[in-house]
Fold this sequence. Notes:
The protein is 21% helix and 21% strand. By secondary structure, it is of the alpha+beta class. The chain has two domains: 4-124, N-terminal domain of MutM-like DNA repair proteins (Alpha-Beta Barrel); 138-267, Helicase, Ruva Protein, domain 3 (Orthogonal Bundle), CATH 1.10.8.50. The strands form three sheets. It has a four-stranded antiparallel beta sheet, with helices on one face. The chain has a four-stranded antiparallel beta sheet with strand order 2-3-4-8, covered by helices on one side.
Amino acid sequence: MPEGDSVWRAAHQLHEALAGQTLLASDFRVPRFATLNLAGWTVDEVVPRGKHLLMRVVSPEDKRLTIHSHLKMEGAWQVYPPGGRWRKPGFTARCVLRTAAADAVGFSLGIVEVVATANEDSIVGFLGPDLLGPDWDLDEAERRLRSRPEVPIGVALLDQRNLAGIGNIYRCEACFLSGVHPATPVGEVADVRTMMTDAKQLLEVNLGPGRRVTILNSRGMPVGRMAGRPGYWVYGRERQPCLKCRTPIRRGLLGKPNGEEERDIYFCPKCQPAPT
């Protein structure tokens, strides 16, 4: 699933291409909005909110709507020159927006819907502070995490109601940097603030071009983009040696206490001892 940095980059690309442009045509390929026509509306801005994309449009009569999308596991927005050939199969397109300057196409979107801009809270109001947003509040994020001390930290970090923007990669990497096994209950984690601060730094480092990396030097600069160097400390490195202690990295499954939504976790059994 795309993480907060991927959504931020997508929003930035869409904003650069569409903001201030008038829609020549819109094509919503989902039943609920199939008849909606936004031709003549102007794109005001495109902003990320955690893993959600909010495209705000304004009519000539100053009515305001928001095109809300979520990439889920396989979704992507791509921008093309007008009439450009798509790089993904047409049957996967869920939203097509055309302007005189560019075409924007949302492929395999997990969610695409249109709501009144005044009602955006009905779709994203539940989210916790956004690690990449102007609303970031470390104290509030910690309060939300600490409110359920029995939940595994690896589950709590993925819960967008606590803080918005962390996905599976960043939760695994942040846990490793803190020396905490992802299955450790939140109440047993001494310093969740550092864990969140590390995740925020990693997200910010990866807002630019190039492959995503989480290995930084003492100045906070990425070193994993160098040829032949691993990009991650543990994520996706099952059976490979830990970059700190050389113990083989392990992969496991971690989900909610009721067993739902199990996802892969990667950890070093020596640097991150499993909770008793």
